[in-house]
Amino acid sequence: MNAYPQCIPCLINQGLNAVRKLNLDKKIEKEIAVRSLKLLSKFDSFDKSPAYYAYFIQQIVKDITGKEDPFYAQKKLANRIALDLLKEIKPMRNSQEDSLAFSLKVSAVGNYIDFAIRGDFDLRRDILNLMNSEFVVWDYETFKKKLKDAERVFIIGDNAGEIAFDKILVEELLSMGKEVLYGVKGKPILNDATYEDAEEVSMTKLCKVIDNGSGKVGTWLEDCSEEFRNTFYASDLVISKGQANFETLSDANREVFFLLVAKCEPIASETGGKVRRFVFKFKGG
After folding, report:
1. CA–CA separation, 132 vs 276, rounded Å?
2. Phi/psi class of residue 154: alpha, beta or left (left: φ > 0; alpha: ψ in -120 to 50)?
3. Interacting residues of 126 by C-beta distance below 8 A, sequence separation 6+
4. Helix (H) and strand (E) counts for the chain?
5. Which listed residue, of 13, 71, 218, 253, carries a Cα 20 to 30 Å from 65's Cα?
6. What per-residue confidence (pLDDT) applies to 187?
7. Do 186 and 194 contact (CB within 8 A), yes or no?
8. Is pTM beyond 0.90 here?
9. d(CA 2, CA 19)
10. 19 to each of 68, 73, 161, 260, how far by Cα in Å?
11. In the structure, what pLDDT confidence band is assigned to residue 142 with cuts at 50, 70 and 90?
12. Dist. CA 232–CA 221, nearest whole Å
């Protein structure tokens, strides 16, 4: 996926959100905005994914703030709130006619936890409200057919907090006799989940967790570890979470199921979805 013109202000806002979360001086906020604009102005065309440009914006944030992980505190908060919410959501599974579909929905709801894009919001209220929403794009029948013959499922995670919601899906797949592996970031970037987050929400107790060895936004396969790439291509079925992973894997040379909330018009357009609605989209190889 290539960047849209609308992506440019969003890229800058991602950098400014980091500053606001750290309660830094307005002068620093301005410096990040100016340097981000100068960086983006150097590109003659925006023919790469939004995630590509977002990575360089975040390097500016890290350089100016001196913080290797500006969203660290927010990730910890998101994990705690998500684990608490999971206590309310998990019992709902027992009353569902289709527990697999329910697990996918919970995983999609988790993708709403994204401090980097939205800034401040009432997480608990929004999450519980979203449990009553439906998918706009729902390639579920295709998923069930593919899953029937799959032995190994690789889930590529996205955000902290969200990773706790993914546990419901992992548990469901394990109960079906599937081998499940879960991918996280190798280095801090935005509010993306790392191995530390996987340990914090006990994902590591459920399945094997692989860090991709990379600190890029999204999943740049060429920048990932050999283990991660081998797992990506050798797994029978891949589920990719979130927008940045969609941006960077939508052209991957294999079948992928993308599970996310479309948070902006460009992603809604690319997926055939609608803004702030669930998307479960299949991409052929």
Report:
1. 13
2. beta
3. 112
4. 13, 7
5. 218
6. 97
7. yes
8. yes
9. 27
10. 13, 13, 20, 26
11. very high
12. 9
